[in-house]
């Protein structure tokens, strides 16, 4: 794990540096096209004044219930402590519920796409779909879901079944096709970003 303040001391490969630069250019390009949108880059401040990515509540017109947002996240906000992107996600940030403290994960602890943590907290996996305002030209996520098989009838049928979808997601994550990512051992946020930023910059994920 990289110690606080030592980010500059890291030696990145040419591929890693290129991925970061491409990701930043893509973000700047998107923001320049949507400067007036309140969540143009998905960044806002949470209830504690910490930077948070994709942490807004569902839009009222898309909601069929009242939602409760977690107030205990952002303890290692990625935007304030960028060195955390090199920490193994599961080992560092995943914790089971203890007493009155709910379970937590990297989405919550890093304040990164926090609506994923809020989706679990509210037991509604459609939470993010109700909270994100995607530009009509952004086709990455639909293709991402398609290529991973998440638009198959058996998965779509579980969209309102939280326990069923959770069980299905655990089964999928443990499939051999995802083992190479080492998501449950050593994967870091940076490992994910290397793949994700290249895909979003291109405009679509690889099949």
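Q: What amino acid sequence fits the structure above?
A:
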């Amino acid at each position: 794990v990289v110690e606080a303040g030592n980010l500059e001391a890291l030696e990145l490969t040419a591929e890693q540096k290129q991925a970061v630069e491409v990701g930043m250019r893509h973000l700047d390009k998107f923001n320049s096209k949507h400067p007036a949108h309140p969540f143009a880059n998905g960044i806002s401040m949470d209830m504690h004044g910490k930077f948070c990515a994709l942490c807004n509540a569902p839009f009222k017109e898309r909601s069929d219930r009242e939602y409760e947002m977690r107030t205990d996240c952002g303890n290692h906000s990625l935007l304030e402590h960028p060195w955390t992107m090199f920490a193994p996600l599961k080992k560092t940030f995943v914790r089971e519920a203890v007493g009155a403290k709910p379970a937590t994960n990297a989405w919550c602890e890093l304040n990164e796409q926090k609506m994923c943590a809020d989706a679990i907290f509210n037991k509604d996996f459609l939470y993010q779909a109700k909270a994100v305002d995607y530009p009509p030209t952004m086709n990455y996520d639909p293709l991402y879901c398609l290529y991973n098989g998440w638009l198959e009838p058996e998965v779509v049928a579980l969209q309102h079944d939280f326990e069923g979808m959770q069980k299905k997601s655990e089964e999928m994550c443990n499939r051999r096709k995802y083992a190479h990512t080492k998501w449950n051992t050593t994967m870091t946020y940076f490992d994910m970003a290397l793949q994700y930023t290249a895909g979003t910059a291109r405009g679509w994920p690889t099949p």
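Q: And what stands out in the fold?
A: The beta strands are 43-45, 51-53.
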